[in-house]
Specification:
The complex is a heterodimer of chains A (116) and B (113).
Chain A lengths: L3 E4 L2 E4 L5 E7 L6 E7 L5 E8 L5 E2 L8 E7 L2 E6 L8 E9 L5 E4 L3 E5 L1
Chain B lengths: L2 E3 L4 E5 L4 E3 L2 E3 L6 E7 L6 E7 L6 E3 L2 E6 L4 E6 L8 E8 L5 E3 L3 E6 L1
Parallel strand pairs in B: 2-12
Antiparallel strand pairs in B: 1-4, 3-9, 5-6, 5-10, 7-8, 8-9, 10-11, 10-12
Classes of the chains: A mainly beta (116), B mainly beta (113).
Chain lengths: 116, 113
Amino acid sequence: GAVVSQHPSRVICKSGTSVKIECRSLDFQATTMFWYRQFPKKSLMLMATSNEGSKATYEQGVEKDKFLINHASLTLSTLTVTSAHPEDSSFYICSAWTGEGGTEAFFGQGTRLTVV
Amino acid sequence: AQKVTQAQTEISVVEKEDVTLDCVYETRDTTYYLFWYKQPPSGELVFLIRRNSFDEQNEISGRYSWNFQKSTSSFNFTITASQVVDSAVYFCALRRSGYALNFGKGTSLLVTP
């Protein structure tokens, strides 16, 4: 089946530094990928829609300058958390659709970010 | 507006009991897709089922079954003869027009021996 690979699975960074998270579709092309954020014991909230070759679409309330999204190829989208602060600590997970008409959503393994 | 409500925050059962996880959705779309995902402690999301709005047949997969009722806007999930490995958070989700998913708040299921 289709696989979405996300890297790294865990990262600890110092406050003020930037962290890049990669999301790859391994056996299919994804013109659109989605980034979600999940706080502990909470639901997944859509942060942004990543579009290959164009700007990402951010959900209301998500700071586009803090969460930079780049979708440079049909198999790779990256999320960079810039100038990270402890409140950015969270679980980030990406997804992409496959199947005719987009009938199946596959998720990466997720990245647990801890900012100290 | 599209919304998914999972009213049960936490459920605890003893192994071999049956358990039903409720999901109620709201949408104005006539065509829509509903999903259930399992999230074990490791965090990854495991796809369980997809159901489109035109297919009201209930589905059974092993110990798992789903009851889709458009009349009540519900898509409930039942685990028969629960096992400890079923312990996880279960999310019901509704696909938006742009293909992103609106997730419910999730139901944390704990199955004890």
